Amino acid sequence: MPRATCPVCDAELRLSASEAVFGRRVTCPECGSVLEVVEEDPLELEEVAFGFDEDFDEDEDEF
Ligand SMILES: [Zn+2]
């Protein structure tokens, strides 16, 4: 089974083969962060930033 490290809390995650696919999002069971597969070999995860919501954009326009 593919393994990856959570970039947020350093926990070791075990992904299924269908999860270890580029662009796939998984949730870290340790810290709850949403992670995206950014590299398949070696398997690497990156935290998904939530600053790009549509609601957020509207707020920034007013700012
Ligand atoms: Zn984590």
Provide the residue-averaged pLDDT: 87
Name of the level-1 CATH class: Mainly Beta
Overall number of strands: 5
Structural class: alpha+beta
* Major sheet characteristics: 3 strands, antiparallel
Count of discrete structural domains: 1
Estimated radius of gyration: 14 Å
Mass-distribution shape? globular
Q: State the distance separating the first and last CA atoms.
A: 47 Å
β-strand percent reads 25-35%
Number of helices: 1
Percent range of helical residues = 10-25%
Cofactors, ions, other ligands: zinc ion
Instruction: Provide the CATH architecture.
Output: Single Sheet
Query: Strand order, biggest sheet?
Result: 3-4-5
The topology string of helices and strands comes to EEEEEH
Spans of at least 5 consecutive residues whose pLDDT stays below 50 are none
Reported by name, the CATH topology is: Rubrerythrin, domain 2
Would you mind describing this structure in some detail?
- This protein is of the alpha+beta class and 63 residues long.
- It has a single domain, classed as Rubrerythrin, domain 2.
- It has one helix at 54-62; strands at residues 3-5, 12-14, 25-27, 34-40, 43-47.
- The protein is globular and about 45 Å long.
- It starts with a strand and ends with a helix.
- The model has no long low-confidence stretch (mean pLDDT 87).
- Bound molecules: zinc ion.
- Zinc ion binds at residues 6, 8-9, 11, 28, 30-31, 33.
